[in-house]
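All the exercises in this workshop are built on plain-text protein records. Sequence and backbone structure share a record, each on its own labelled line. The structure tokens are whole numbers drawn from a learned vocabulary of backbone shapes. The record below serves as our worked example for the rest of this section.
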Amino acid sequence: MKTSARELAEFLHATIDGDPDIEVTHPSKIEEAGPGSISFIGNPKYESFAYTTRASILVVPNEFKAQRPLQATLLRVDNVYQSLGNLLSRFENNGHPVGISDQASIDETVSLGAGVAVGPLSVIEKNAVIGAGSLIYAQVYIGEQVTIGRDCTIYPGVKIYAGCKVGDRCVIHSNTVIGSDGFGFVPNPEGRMEKIPQLGNVELGDEVEIGSGCTIDRATMGSTRIGKGCKLDNLIQIAHNVEIGEHTVIAAQAGIAGSTKIGARCMIGGQVGIAGHLRIPDGTQIQAQSGIMSAPSEPNQKLFGYPAISYHDYLRAYALFRKLPDLEQRLRDLEKKSGE
């Protein structure tokens, strides 16, 4: 893709400082950039690269003041990182499917919206509905009566079980499973575990993004729900009947046990474990590798540790913990003096 500084300035609502006709074909890291590439400076500690980079165009904050001569044309914007996201989407090219592959298996009862693309070896079962503009990559399985909204992207190897619902503008990355059975078993009188049928589904709100290798279990009854705008990293387990509020973000390898309710705008770090049947208030922040055994009572708390406690209490306690050997020795010295 070739584009000019003038075209990018219009796209990013930027001010041009330099040659408006200079052209670029791809984005690059500033320290590796060459002619024909575009890069950015969002953090002042990288400013030194502005004077040595070979990039043709740099995206910089409006307030950026060069201390030395620059070779690159500048695009000045209000918010560099927001502009970077828009810029990368303009250059994005994942080789997405075009049209309906002859190697796809699509039941005659399936409803495909305008502009839907389906890659080879994908399977779409009876009465599924795929919204306009959605991209279904190769080797995707979509079960009976699944509903997928408009402008969604479903990457290779995703499995969406029967009856699940995906909102508009969702992204589901490779090898994620939506709607597998919840972990429901009960011991019978002989001590054997008998399976409890899992009859519910999974519902994803609009603008949800799910990373690779995640599993989101269907509800026993009703729905497991992921709210609008939620972002899930790779390798996350969401158990049956969990509900996650809007715009919550969860980092990799976190696990949430059954029937727990997570509030809106929460931030959950990597490898966090949350026990079942809890209610986590809106705005809760949980540091990486913490374990939540009981629900916090107030919204917007920061939690840390295992079992997790207030973030600041944990830091104070840990500071004392590190001093325990010295405190023990001082205690022994005091006991010795007291004895004497």
